[in-house]
Amino acid sequence: MSCGTNMDIEDLNFDLPDLNDKKKRMNSGLRNVKTKKRLTEEIPDKIIPGTQKIYVKTWGCPHNLSDSQYMTGILAEYGYIITEKKQEADLWLLNSCTVKGPSEKSFIKEIKLGETMKKFIVLAGCVPQGDRHNKNIQGYSVVGVQQIDRVLEVVEQTLKGNIVRLLGRGRKPRLDLPKIRSREMTEIIPISKGCLGSCTFCKTKHARGNVGSYEIEAILDRIVTVIEEGVIQIDLESEDSGAYGKDIGTSLSELLAHIVEILPKDKHVMVKFGMTNPPHILEQLDAISDFLNHPNVYSYLHIPVQSGSSKVLKEMNREYNIEEFCDVVDHMYENVPNITIQTDIIVGFPTETDADFEETIELVKKYKFKFIHISKFYPRPGTPAAKLPLIDGRIVNQRSKTLTELYKSYLPNEHFKNQILKLYVSDQKSKYKNYLIAHDKSYNNVLVPYDKDKIGKTLDVKIIDVDRFHMKAEYLKPNYQWFYLSLVFPIILSLIYTWISYFY
Predict the structure, then answer these.
(1) According to the 3-state scheme, what is the secondary structure of 451-486?
(2) Residue 475, domain member (yes or no)
(3) How far apart are CA 125 and CA 65, in angstroms?
(4) Which DSSP string corresponds to 290-315?
(5) Can you say whether the dihedral through the CA atoms of 236, 237, 241, 243 is positive or negative?
(6) Which of 112, 121, 348, 497 is the residue whose CA sits 20 to 30 A from 59?
(7) What does the DSSP 8-state code read for residue 390?
(8) Are 167 and 178 contacting, i.e. CB atoms less than 8 angstroms apart?
(9) By residue range, what is the domain housing residue 97?
């Protein structure tokens, strides 16, 4: 619902409302009203805050998901009811992604649906932050990516019929804000925001800005806190983890060394390392491989390559060539046993020739990556690549099909069949009914029968079925034969000893 007074306060600096001050504010002459109004109706100036239902939808990366979890935590602590039923909600909080066209189109479609349903709407994420003049987001309140700790102000003003846009930069929300995790036992910790690159196809830099790292102490404090709260998986996330610390006089290597020092030896806690681009880790490969070899860290690394052609990488302004990417991958394969490497590839970049695409095919054949995120090029408004002539859509579609078929032709899990694996069982539910998703040390996806008592445990399982993207396992049955033998064996030894003593 886009109505009321436009309060553009994006350059002002208000204090975050005291989350414990709800009663005082409720007693200051505010009165309860229905918030579901038609556009032609007058919106009352004041309402009782913290009594409405809020629906939250998130697009994009884990960093975006973490932002949504923080915002819902702040709103819930103040009294707002977070609901998954959009029809029942008074206000929709829509957290967007600007990486690809389809994500933004879905976001815009959801705005229009909310408008049709007469909902109050607050926008968040990289779309409004990166393009504040986008015609599709005018007339709506906005919470900027560096202002998520002020979501309460925006929601309260929006429910009063005002339009508030908080898009200021140069600050990072605290890591210890209230938070509602989408998975109770999995915590996403952003170690930094933004990046140092200027890729010609990417609009995320417009929204997230230059790299801004959290202090090591703040990250360590957050890790200790969430472990005490019962978290069993910690995902360290960033737009580019390798660039961590370059703005505050430290490094990713130093952060990782401190993290392994505080991981508990008596608890089942696993850490998953986030995405990193090649340029900023070339001098930190030993530190990263040592970290990935730690028993409480998944042997998994996400390194986007985007193209197998050094020429295309240069035109993308990726700041590395294909030989340097291969140096990273080769080092990890040589130094981290059974590592899983995930990469991203864009097909159909405007300057990509058939020969360039063939180099990408050869790269995939060489490494047979277990996970590849394949995207067709989408021109993002305001980026240098958007000004380039597009390749014929039929050619792009064919390249995408060819690469996808090659990727799916590999069967990396075949050798696991009938093997016994040690799994870390998290609280991640599968789309397959009655199954949980567990992972081995290499972060392979393994489906195990749902059993609440198994969550948070480290278990040995037998792999009974495999396909391209996951495996299915069964829990091992207790070996009662050995159990009974362990009981009987001491008795037998005692009898033998007694018999020998009797005769000698």
Answers:
(1) CHHHCCCEEEEEEEEECCCCEEEEECCCCHHHHHHH
(2) yes
(3) 10
(4) HHHTSTTB-SEEE---B-S-HHHHHH
(5) negative
(6) 348
(7) P
(8) no
(9) 46-166
Residue 327's closest CA among 375, 291, 367? 367
Handedness of CA 279, 280, 283, 287 (dihedral sign): negative
Cβ within 8 Å of residue 133, ≥6 positions away: none
Instruction: Tokens for 282, please give them.
Output: 């070339």
Q: Enumerate residues 6+ apart whose C-beta is below 8 A from 113.
A: none
- Cβ contact 119:91 at 8 Å: yes
Residue whose token pair is 């007074």: 5
CA geometry: angle 108, 110, 112, nearest 5 deg:
75
Which tens digit of pLDDT belongs to each residue from 56-74?
A: 999 988 888 999 999 999 9
Q: How far apart are CA 447 and CA 463, in angstroms?
A: 9
Domain final position from 135, 166, 197? 166
pLDDT at 488: 62
Are 81 and 52 in contact, with CB atoms under 8 Å apart?
yes
The pLDDT tens digits of the residues spanning 382-426 come to: 899 999 999 999 999 999 999 999 999 998 888 999 999 999 988
Counting the structural domains of the chain, the total is 3
CB 454 within 8 A of CB 436: yes
Question: d(Cα 129, Cα 132) in Å, to the nearest integer?
Answer: 6
117 and 204 part of one domain: no
Asked whether residue 396 is domain-assigned, the answer is no
**Last residue of a domain, which of 166, 197, 217?**
166
Token reading at 479 = 């070996």
| Residue 144 in domain | yes
**3-class state of residue 203 by DSSP:** coil
Compute the distance between CA of residue 414 and CA of residue 412 in angstroms, rounded to an integer: 6
Give the residue from 98, 334, 294 showing the smallest Cα distance to 207: 98
Tokens of 271: 């850490």
Answer whether residue 15 is part of any domain: no
Crossing angle for the helix pair 252-262 and 285-292, to the nearest 10 degrees: 20
Residues 319-360 have pLDDT tens digits of 999 999 999 999 999 999 999 999 999 999 999 999 999 999
Structure tokens at 438: 């567990």
C-beta separation of 234 from 269 below 8 A: yes
Domain containing residue 298: CATH number: 3.80.30.20
Instruction: Collapse the DSSP code of 382 into the 3-class scheme (helix H, G, I; strand E, B; otherwise coil) and give the result.
Output: coil
